[in-house]
Write a structure and sequence with these properties.
224 residues, single chain, globular, 5 strands, alpha/beta, five-stranded mixed sheet, Uracil-DNA Glycosylase, subunit E
């Protein structure tokens, strides 16, 4: 990508500053392609001995122009072995459709960690660190033009942000991960809690706009 829609060029120092910053930095030269069988056999953290029944790897086309990262599988995801298949996933895919996505091929969907944490709690730092290389391999294998991060956990860890940031303020603004444009969005579980009986909540309508921005950049090949 030579420049962004506003005419500005990606800044390497900004991408480095905002990069995933748990332990060093990987380059494409030393990131192997994603191996689903190896991921399913992973025993790298305590989640492998927890409540998981399946390792939930990413779902979608490896040729997708966008990649969405959630937090962790929940009960329904663990049951079926696919990300975002519960009620929040139904809402997410509905919002994607309203934003013009072809959900079959436009977006590869995954999570920061591939195993369900006990009681559906947020994944811990050490669990995300143990799963980091699987996420990096997914990103490298897909090679997305745009990354979407759903919720504070995935946004914070992917971008190396501290605990003080607010996803409600960061959402909808372009960030970078290793020079890949990143669009943070609100987590669909949060949106689900704020839905109204009379239709989509204001937050869900904002999320549709954020998704539209991501789709526009990802599918516009003029600057790629």
């Amino acid at each position: 990508m030579s420049k962004h829609k506003d005419g500005s060029k990606p800044k390497k120092d900004m991408a480095h500053q905002l990069g995933l910053n748990l332990s060093g930095e990987s380059s494409p030269e030393n990131i192997p392609l994603f191996d689903a069988d190896a991921c399913r056999a992973c025993q790298a953290c305590g989640l492998a001995q927890g409540v998981r029944t399946k390792v939930v790897i990413g779902s979608g086309s490896y040729a997708a122009p966008m990649l969405l990262i959630g937090e962790a599988p929940g009960q329904e995801e663990d049951k079926f072995g696919k990300p975002f298949v519960g009620s929040s996933g139904v809402l997410l895919k509905g919002l994607m459709t309203k934003a013009g996505f072809d959900t079959r091929c436009d977006c590869f969907i995954t999570n920061m960690v591939k195993c369900r944490p006990p009681n559906n709690r947020n994944p811990r730092v050490e669990e995300i660190a143990a799963c980091r290389h699987w996420l990096e391999r997914e990103i490298y294998t897909v090679g997305p033009r745009v990354i979407l991060t759903a919720g504070a956990v995935s946004t914070g860890f992917l971008l190396g942000l501290g605990k003080g940031f607010k996803i409600t303020k960061l959402r909808g603004s372009w960030q970078f991960y290793k020079e890949i444009p990143v669009m943070p969005i609100l987590h669909p579980a949060y949106l689900l809690r704020n839905e109204t009986k009379n239709g989509l909540s204001p937050m869900s309508k904002l999320t549709i706009k954020d998704l539209e921005k991501a789709r526009k950049l990802a599918l516009d090949t003029t600057d790629h």
